[in-house]
Write a structure and sequence with these properties.
The complex is a heterotrimer of chains A (about 260), B (about 140) and C (about 110). Chain A is α+β, with helices and mostly antiparallel strands and about 260 residues long. Chain A has eight helices and seven strands; from the N terminus they run ββαβββββααααααα. In chain A, β3 and β4 form a beta hairpin. The chains are: A alpha+beta (about 260), B mainly alpha (about 140), C mainly alpha (about 110).
Chain lengths: ~260, ~140, ~110
Amino acid sequence: MAQVSSIADEKTSTHVSPSSSVLLRISRYNPKHDDSSKFMEFNVPYEKWTTVLEAILEVKKHFDHSVAVRYSCRQATCGSCGMKINGKPRLACFTKISELDSNIITVEPMNNFPIIRDLAVKFERLFDTHQKIKPFLIRDDTELESDEKEFLQSPKELEQYIQFANCIKCGLCNSACPTMATDSSFVGPQALAQAYRYVADTRDKGKDSRLKIIDESHGIWRCHFAGSCSQVCPKGVDPAMGIQFLRGYMLGFRS
Amino acid sequence: MTRDEHKEGIGGMANPTRYGIERVAYWLMRLSGLGLLAYFVAHIYETSNILRGQVGWNEFLELTQTTEGHIFLALVIAMCVFHTVNGIRVMLGHGGIGVGKPARPDYPYEPASQNYRHKIGIYSAILLAAIATMYGLAVMFGE
Amino acid sequence: MRESTIMKIHYGTALAAVALVAVHILMRLTQGFAESLEYENVLANYKLIPYAAMLELILILLAVHGFNGLRVILLELRQGRTYEKAVSYGCLAAMIGLIAYGSRTIIMTNMGMV
């Protein structure tokens, strides 16, 4: 007789421990029919390793499946789950409840991004500003000859820009930036850091055109080195460093 | 600023908390800059009293050489020294000086630009402002 | 004017103003603070051509630096073509106005027209 495996009984995804639970306050807002956002509160059990994303998914599973949240990789690679957690922009999958040192966790959509619903926000502005700075290699010899090989680059040359290439476009930097808080036309730390990523790449020959693009009244000069972008970046891109290096080119500190 | 854009607004720009001493320095720089501009305009106006001769000048001195006037000037000294010292730090930072070197990022992904050099610069600016204020108060109230 | 040029002026005026304002403040401290503010002493300061020139320079440097800083803050608070043009020209007008008013004081006092 063939062995038939039975469907496993569904268990709760986290071990229910009465002593470890946290109050999760989730901002709920649907622009189509709500005038303002409101908070809904849920008591969620957690372990030492439970992330905020897991807590939100626990809410979706057991309390209210209509909570809108964007997530994908669950390992700080895709940049989808950016949100404001206890007042600071963070990746939900990369933030453990235990590291927040609080019995109350408040999750809200990232600031400076229009809200789609609840915790999901629109990224059009980030994509537009990113495209504006020409995020691709600019060279005259883009049509390679048949016997041409790859563009050579030493490890030292790679080290000059590789950290800025780690950007996952999560938008946390744009959310934390004080200029982005009020300036709708500002290019933003994400785009400026990516502009430096290409300027610093020895394969790229488009430095002058990129510097011209950001040399405007709402370009690089509206960055005041507050450093909040670097404080929140989950991948160590350190946009503030890239922006100041870029400005160094324009001020004559770097050539 | 439309509600649609979900911008943090002036409240977010003016909130110095959440992101470390560098954000506090940004906030103090803005406050001191605006304060100094207001003082500068007032100073140009008040010193124009010299054109009203001895009587006009002495009238203006009666207004400013008071306890309140001295405390106000002490505040101006604090703003001026902080704005100057922090301004020099920011200018160096804007040139890429003291912001660290690019390197392959590794956990815990601490940003190299938010380093001890700039933190010391900020705390020095605050300390020098405090010292200058105390010196100014000693000079003004000591006479 | 390109924004990079404006910001280079912003940095340059800041650095120059630091040195000159330090001299201006030291003048008040070397003589004795209250004594240095007496009418005759202030008048004597204005009558010295190098000192009057230094005051004029401080006036121009700080007016440029201060009002450009205000322009930057106002541009960040709100956007729009009309608003931005109004802020830029408004700050320029305020800059020129303050320089004119302050220069009037310096020149008239220096020439003894008090």
